[in-house]
Amino acid sequence: MNLMKLVEYFRTQVRQDPEVPSAVAAIRTLLEFLKRDQTGETILGLRENLTQTIRRLEEADSSVAVSSGGELFLRFISLTSLEHPDLSQCKKVMVERGELFLKKISLSRSKVAKLCHTFIKDGAKILTHSSSRVVLKVLESAAADKKRFTVYVTESQPDSAGRQMADKLQNLNIPVTVVLDAAVGYIMEKVDLVIVGAEGVVESGGIINKIGTYQLAVCSKAHNKPFYVVAESFKFVRLYPLNQQDVPERFKYKADTLKAVEDLAEEHPMIDYTPPSLITLLFTDLGVLTPSAVSDELIKLYL
Amino acid sequence: NEGKELSKEEKQRLRKQKKQQKKQKERKNEKSETEKEKTPVSLLPPPRPVATQKAPSALPAPASAPIPVPASAPFHSSPAPSPADKPAKSKAELKAERRARQETDRAAKQPGSSSSGIKTKVPLSELNPVVKRLPEHVQVDDPAVVKRLAKKLERQQIPLRSDYGYKVSLFSHLHQYSRKAPLTQQLSIPSTVIHPSIVRLGLQYSQGIVAGSNARSVALLHAFKQVIRDYTTPPNEELSRDLVNKLKPYISFLNQCRPLSASMGNAIKYIKKEISNIPSQCKEEEAKTKLLTCIDRYIEEKIVLAAKAISKYAIEKISDGDVILVYGCSSLVNNILCEAFEKSRKFRVIVVDSRPRLEGREALRRLVQRGISCTYVLISALSYILPEVSKVFLGAHALLANGYVMSRVGTSQIALVARTFNVPVLVCCETYKFCEKVQTDSFVSNELDDPDDLMVTRKGKTQLENWQDVSSLGLLNLVYDVTPPDFVDLVITDLGMIPCTSVPVVLRVKNLDQ
Asked: Is B383 left (phi over 0), alpha (psi -120 to 50) or beta?
């Protein structure tokens, strides 16, 4: 299957269902590729093609989630290929399992929401950052549980994603206020807890999220407010950044920027890294984890 | 051979029984005359009636002929007959005897289990296995423990090394030896009990000729290979049992020369496991070659290939323009830096060193030889130099089960100051150095080096020359310290990059593999 067609397929997926996580769309695309692929003769050849496809997808959408979804799929393929050395049978099993896997992870958001909304008490004031669909789901289920709470959302420049989040929350009849990114320190004393989503969860238990999350985490630590992260398990990625500089360049900027611009030092990074020492708990579909338990889960997943 | 008819577990039990009987015999002899009436009485009556009943059902394979023997055989006889006595009774009879005694002891033990103290060497499989013994090397100030150790060494015919000099009170529970009095001075040449390559190794350890965790383990394994090559199974003995017993006095001897490191402990555990897993039908030559290949494989996998894997991960973390700080001389860290330099990464190194070992000079020599630009400072200049540093690479002597890093003294200081300056600290450690021990401070278990090393001669004057004469003066030369996991950002192992808190997970995964 042509790589261009694949990228088109991926983009259509995202366009048709704006709710779908980008990692899931990526995995769906890869599964489609697997189904349509006629050229592969050996398993190694299949792996090569898949790696190429993943790289192409990453070029199209440079978020961490696509990378983690792709890696997860690749690992899943390698494990299956070990059990069934015959290619055609292997493919059949892979497609079956792939469908099962997709079904499981599409339910992961609701699992996370179910775990997290109990931590939101009646009368709570919540601070969140930018626009995250998982956080939206959490707040939705908390509202459905007849809890009363108010939400503060940071505006999250340069794309003002926070305003979209505010609109969506208003549609759910949740009282919401948009605050400037610079007003995080000002508002921190009023809030009770901070909930953010994550684009990727790294091996140390830290997260990679929209720029401004690190500031939010540092402020909440200084005020002793709990900092909760909600993320599905397919966002776990095999990176280990030591500091902001250590995050690979291909994640920091949007895909078009990476291709167009020569000197990246002049560009604004879109994401930052929050170290695990600032995070209180992570809510995932694998359960409620402390940052040090993330490494446990990753070892179980990948080793 | 009748010995092969009993399964492995039964043989192990018999051996434990033998040991236990020996202990009981010693305890009996130590007790005063007033007690003498009690203990023999308590030992004898229960066994006799029970033995005749239990013996028939207890014996699995050997013939029924030995049954009358236990009842009449004198229980006063030494339960561990020396090889000279062995031909006197047939092997089956002895085994039947032991079996019977074991059964009776188990019966006698049930009500009396509460009387056994924590420090007695009761076979743990028969008691609640929660009881753990403190290792002898951290109980030097307890005379009972020292006496027990002395007796054990006497039995193994190894000289006991005596402590030297005044010990600082906080560390009085640890040994402190002098390098000028090596253990080998008290040995007769040639030593009948200890293999010459082990004697050489012990001397190399105690004089500091072979130093460093990896170097010591590799030297140990090579010495054991020589021992195995020169080993011949005595008649009526099995290689898997006898070789392990032969190794025990060697290990005690090496422990006396210099306390064993965690990596050496793990290597020894591996060798003992491999030896005891040799099937009894195996011919001697075959078994020996098998063991030699096992040891070679261990060295290759756990040390050489692990170093390559760790370099591969570590090189990802070294970027151009980095200023890397290293402490002391870690073979692994030097390896990583040399590999990174070969892969044309542009970086410079700051080597931090400390007295009295001054190991940093060796690291400096190795790095400069490769062409890496280095700076050399002493540890007192650490906070001065740290603002320039972008990363800290540290080696480890062992990684403890609670995530603490045990390394050369001074490492925790470096990690602490680096944390204050927000400089990432990376620890590089192979998985064979992970140990199940748990320690939260550097006092509990450590090593005290020769205090005379702290004396320095400048301009012809040695200030501390007569330090022994000053009664209130103690010189402390610590070897290791522990760094808490909050100061360490990343641990690079051959399994990948893990946070410091995930060490127990790796230990668990390793145990599952075995």
From this structure: alpha
What average pLDDT is seen over chain A? 86
Gap between the Cα atoms of B494 and B429, Å rounded? 8
A73-77, B210-214, B344-348: segment of lowest average pLDDT: A73-77
Mean pLDDT of chain B: 80
Chain A residues near residue B499 by CB distance under 8 angstroms: 203-205, 276, 292, 295
Per CB-CB distance under 8 Å, the chain B contacts of A248 are none
Chain A contact for B262, CB < 8 A? no
Nearest to B497 among A203, A296, A303 (CB): A203
Chain A contact for B424 (CB, 8 A cutoff): yes
pTM of the model: 0.77
Residues of chain B within CATH 3.40.50.10470 domain(s) are 319-442+478-513
Tokens 């508002």, residue located: A187
In this prediction, the answer to ipTM > 0.85 reads no
CA dist B293 → B69, B297, B335, B472 (Å): 45, 6, 25, 54
Handedness of CA A6, A8, A11, A15 (dihedral sign): negative
Could you give phi then psi for residue B465, rounded to 5 degrees?
-50, -45
Contacts of B480 by beta carbon, 8 Å cutoff, 6+ apart: B397, B406, B407, B408, B409, B442, B446, B447
Assigned token pair, B101: 């005694």
As given in the structure block, the two tokens for residue B337 are 């830096």
What is the bridge-based pairing of β-strands B480-483 and B374-378?
unpaired
Q: How distant is the alpha carbon of residue B25 from its chain centre? A: 29
**Nearest chain A Cα distance for residue B31, angstroms:** 54
- CATH number assigned to the domain covering B136-306: 1.20.120.420
Q: Write out the DSSP string of B243-275.
A: HHHHHHHHHHHHHHHSPPPHHHHHHHHHHHHHH
- Give yes or no for residue B441 having a pLDDT over 60: yes
Least reliable range by pLDDT among B65-69, B124-128, B165-169, B480-484: B65-69
HEC readout, A172-226: CCCCEEEECHHHHHHHCCCCCEEEECCCEECCCCCEEEECCHHHHHHHHHHCCCC
What does the DSSP assignment read for B390-447?
SEEEEE-SEE-TTS-EEEETTHHHHHHHHHHTT--EEEE--GGGB-S---SSSSSS--
CB B330 within 8 A of CB B394: yes
Q: Is-cis flag, bond preceding B190, omega within 30? A: yes
Range(s) within chain B of domains with CATH label 1.20.120.420 = 136-306
Q: Which CATH architecture has domain B319-442+478-513?
A: 3-Layer(aba) Sandwich (3.40)
Nearest CA in chain B to A277: B486
Distance between CA atoms of residues A222 and A129, nearest Å: 17
B422 vs A contacts (CB less than 8 Å):
243
- What sign does the CA torsion over B416, B418, B419, B425 have? negative
For chain B, the helix, strand and coil percentages under 3-state DSSP, each to the nearest 5: 55, 10, 35
Residue B395: per-residue pLDDT: 95
* Residues pairing with A200 in the sheet: A208
